[in-house]
Amino acid sequence: MTARAIRLGPRSVAALALITLIGVAAFGWPLLAGSASGLAHSQDAPWLFAALLPLLLAVVVATIADTGLGAKAVAMLGVLAAAGAALRPLGAGTAGIEPMFFLMVLSGRVLGPGFGFVLGSLSMFASALLTGGVGPWMPFQMLAMGWVSMGAGLLPERLRGRAELAVLALYGAVASFCYGTIMNLQGWPYIGSLASGISFVPGDPLSENVTRFAAYCLATSLGWDLPRAAVTSVATLLLGPAVLKALRRATRRAAFEAPVEFKDADTA
Predict the structure, then answer these.
(1) Phi-psi region for residue 112, left (φ > 0), alpha (ψ -120 to 50) or beta?
(2) Which stretches are transmembrane (predicted)?
(3) CB neighbour class for 233 (10 Å; exposed up to 12, middle 13-18, buried from 19)
(4) Which of 12, 133, 162, 163 supports an S-S bond with 62, CB 3.0-4.6 Å?
């Protein structure tokens, strides 16, 4: 069985479920907003950010209560978050080239969904500080990247070898594409009347807004989402074996799940 730096227990599952529900509501409620709501994500983003940070802490605290979380896991989290933050500026998002995605997918795969969610969120937070990308979109990016990495940790553990790489490459492509689509929900209400055929119209029937949203995605982000998916898949296939081996070796040596025992020094 794959070693996990953070195993999910009842409390951590509840915390992750709560974060996910808040995230789904934050991304999706514009589709159900009334025509007089005066909706703008720039108004609710600070509140989401204020809620997200304590909930991320709650995942860690709940995990400590469930199974324990040692200094080794915290160190691993810090190293991988720093690596992810450093990788993001390499592509600077140009044409969807974002190399941090494949590292988040592989890390979530090896270290589990709980570790993956916290890692993805913290990596996006750190990269935003590093690149000056702090804005109303940041808490949404943190949630979306957390989901990407968490999903990789939920893939079947028994997969190994070429089958594992193929599944991870496919998952990376789908997750990268879904990331862009989900993030479009955050920016879509901003465009207002700039493009009436694809803009968000509060109070319109859900089917009409969904049609406009699909057109918005095709017109604005498809050229970014497809390259991101391709880069993530190719990087996973080419670099995946080495990265997975390194992560698994580090996890075994760290012995996250080994019980810690303290013994008196032999004075004989």
Answers:
(1) left
(2) 12-33, 45-65, 71-90, 110-131, 163-182, 229-247
(3) buried
(4) 12
Q: Which residues make Cβ contacts (< 8 Å) with residue 38, sequence separation at least 6? A: none
Task: Report the 10 Å Cβ neighbour count for 265.
Answer: 5
- Between CA 66 and CA 104 the distance in angstroms is 24
Q: What are the two backbone dihedrals, phi and then psi, of residue 56, each rounded to the nearest 5 degrees? A: -60, -45
Count of CB atoms situated within 10 Å of the CB of 85:
20
Tokens coding 116? 């993956």
CB 247 within 8 A of CB 106: yes
Burial (CB count within 10 angstroms: exposed 0-12, middle 13-18, buried 19+), residue 96: buried
The predicted model gives 14-40 an average pLDDT of 69
And the tokens for 258? 């080994």
- Which helix (H) or strand (E) segment holds residue 149: the answer is helix 138-153
**Pair of tokens at residue 38:** 């005066």
Amino acid, single-letter form, for residue 204: D
Question: How much is the pTM?
Answer: 0.79
